[in-house]
Amino acid sequence: MDQSSIPLIDLKAQQVLIRPALERAISRVLDHGQYIMGPEVAELEAKLAKFVGVKHAISCSSGTDALLMAMMAKGVRSGDAVLCPGFTYTATPELIVMLGAMPVFVDVAADTFNIDVTRLDGGLWSARRHGLRPVGILAVDLFGQPADYSALGAFAEREGLWVIADAAQSFGARQYGRPVGSLADITATSFFPAKPLGCYGDGGALFTDDDTTADRLRSIRLHGRGSTKYDVVRLGINGRLDTMQAAVLLEKLTIFASEIEERLNVASRYSEALCETGVHPYVLDGATSAWAQYTITLPATRRDHIRNALAEQGISTEIYYPRALDEQPAYQNCLIADGGIPTARSLPRTSLSLPMHPYLSIADQKRVIDALLAAL
Ligand SMILES: *Cc1c(COP(=O)(O)O)cnc(C)c1O
Fold first, then answer.
1. What atom of ligand 1 comes closest to residue 202's alpha carbon?
2. Which tens digits make up the pLDDT trace of 248-298?
3. Whether residue 205 has its Cβ less than 6 Å from ligand 1
4. Rounded CA separation 321/349 (Å)
5. What span, in angstroms and rounded, lies between the C-alpha atoms of 285 and 270?
6. Contacts with 265 (C-beta within 8 Å, 6 or more apart), sequence order
7. Which of 169, 186, 189 to mutate to test the pocket of ligand 1 (most atoms within 8 A of CB)?
8. Which end of the chain is more exposed for a tag (fewer CB within 10 A), N or C?
């Protein structure tokens, strides 16, 4: 085939659009020279808080560090158990283990890929049987769709747990009209370049409405600093977002809302074309996805064949994720919720993510759809 190839994501189209503004923004940082905690950082935090409609947005060094800081702020420690989905990126359970606590993998729903709220009880039983104290739920908004936060919140309140949102993939999505960032006690997101809102390096942010939590997060971001520079009141990390990345994000934020609109358009075109096949993803009533990925589920026996057929036509696809977490060597000692995680175990063999970004042309998307329908 001599057709041009279609990448999974395309960061260049966006850059072309805002390149002059980006260059001016970077020059301003070079001119003032405040590379750490410069004025762009505070400006970005104010704009992020306004975008989400919460009191506090705290920028930080990555999505991974955002999760670490969120759980440090909750005081997660040895003897604690944290419920999280069994099908997600490794950063989700990684920080639970790092803090000496125990992840309890809970199954995900086959249609939304997110933690199955009907399986949370099984997570509590498993933790308690092993003598651990369940303290919270680390939910993940996989592929861009918010987890079911109203159900999670009700469960958490009844059981005395906190809810932290791993919203690394869902910044820009909504649930019942409320933006991601306002749906959990603390929300952690990532500005890794390929995420819906990405910078040109590593970056992340935390969102909360609680003043005490926000103070704690800001202190943790600065090595546990108290009211003066050499006052260390708790353990912390170096978790700052650098000024260059804040400057880049400020420019990207100006077009972010329209990019999210375009992502919704691309996703609707896919879902309309695929509606008869039953392979398309499902979004809960009252929710929107930020469509970090457009992920379909195929019969396990045909998935790789279909993937190859698309590759032959120059169409990139990806498998997120090729293994359930309990199958990874690093997580062999973690707990599994009672009832098991059959869906988390089957998705690595059935899921396939299609090209998805705000600048995917209708013509290119038609090529993906035609190739997929032919292969099906
Ligand atoms: C990307 C991602 C992270 C980590 O974000 P980084 O900025 O790369 O550290 C955490 N959780 C999920 C679900 C992610 O997709």
1. 7
2. 999 999 999 999 999 999 999 999 999 999 999 999 999 999 999 999 999
3. no
4. 9
5. 18
6. none
7. 169
8. N
What is the distance, to the nearest Å, from the Cα of residue 81 to the centroid of all Cα atoms in its chain? 21
pLDDT band per the 50, 70, 90 thresholds, residue 1: very low
Give φ, ψ of 353 to 5 degrees. -95, 130
Let me know if 196 is exposed, middle or buried by CB neighbors in 10 A (0-12, 13-18, 19+): buried
What is the pTM assigned to this prediction? 0.97
CB 335 within 8 A of CB 103: yes
Nearest CA to ligand 1 atom 14: 168
Q: From the centroid of its chain, how far is CA 60?
A: 15
Helical axes 243-274 vs 12-32, angle rounded to 10°? 170
- The phi and psi torsions of 202 (rounded to 5 degrees) equal -100, 145
User: Cα(361) to centroid of ligand 1, in Å?
Assistant: 27
Q: How does pLDDT run across 303-329, given as a tens digit for each residue? A: 999 999 999 999 999 999 999 898 999
Contacts of 68 (CB under 8 A, 6+ apart): 95, 98, 99, 237, 239
Q: How far is the CA of 296 from the centre of ligand 1 (A)?
A: 21
Residue with tokens 């991601």: 180
Residue 229 amino acid letter = K
Residue nearest to atom 6 of ligand 1 (CA): 63
User: Which H helix or E strand runs over 165?
Assistant: strand 162-166
Q: Phi/psi class of residue 357: alpha, beta or left (left: φ > 0; alpha: ψ in -120 to 50)? A: beta
Index of the ligand 1 atom closest to the CA of residue 92? 11
Closest to 171 measured CA to CA, from 274, 54, 268, 275: 54
Q: Which amino acid is at 121?
A: D
Compute and round to an integer the Cα radius of gyration of the chain.
Answer: 21
What angle separates helix 149-159 from helix 120-129, to the nearest 10 degrees?
30
Residue type, 318: E
**Assigned token pair, 251:** 């420019």
